[in-house]
Design a protein that fits this description.
The protein is mostly beta strands and about 170 residues long. It contains 1 helix and 12 strands, in the order H-E-E-E-E-E-E-E-E-E-E-E-E. The strands form 2 sheets. Strands 1-2-3-4-5-6-7-10 form an 8-stranded antiparallel beta barrel. A two-stranded antiparallel ribbon has the order 11-12. The radius of gyration is 16 Å and the shape is elongated.
């Protein structure tokens, strides 16, 4: 799991630092809530248009829970999404995926690892004239501990320019 986390972080940093990453990564964002808890994510559209199918992978962490407990939770969300909209600025986002979790010294469960599934339905704002991106969504999660329908999050990030079309994807 450490190796996968290192690869995801390197992809995210490499995508932000090098414009050439736009050929592979189409957006990167910080997500609060959602399947990665607090996570950095990268996304790839599988079409040449803003609408359509895409893949996302992220790495998230929560460190320290209280003065009495200093634990960590690592999360690796992976998912597929579909963007729907007439214009590129305002989009409906639908998706699903799975998140791998590894936790150490948590207040309620101690050490554990596992996976949970998630759905996603939300709004994505990404103006055509800029690289800015904002998302707000609900993301019900499910696993062996049941179903949590009232879960969601927000994201803020950027889209990378496509060097072939010189516009943001």
């Amino acid at each position: 799991m450490k190796k996968l986390l290192q690869i995801v972080i390197l992809l995210a940093i490499g995508g932000i630092m090098r414009p050439a990453a736009a050929q592979f990564l189409h957006s990167g964002y910080l997500e609060l809530g959602g399947p990665g808890l607090i996570s950095l994510n990268v996304e790839r559209r599988l079409t040449h248009e803003t609408n359509g199918l895409g893949l996302r992978v992220g790495a998230g962490a929560v460190i320290g829970f209280s003065d009495a407990t200093a634990g960590t939770i690592l999360a690796l969300p992976v998912g597929v999404n579909y963007l729907i909209g007439q214009k590129e600025t305002n989009l409906l986002e639908l998706g699903a995926g799975i998140t791998c979790i590894r936790a150490n010294n948590t207040p309620l469960k101690g050490d554990f690892q596992g996976t949970f599934g998630h759905f996603l339905a939300g709004y994505r704002f990404q103006p055509r004239e800029s690289n800015f991106m904002f998302r707000v969504f609900i993301s019900p999660i499910f696993g062996i501990n049941g179903w949590k329908p009232a879960y969601g999050g927000v994201s803020i990030g950027m889209r990378f320019k496509n060097p072939k079309t010189t516009r943001a994807l």
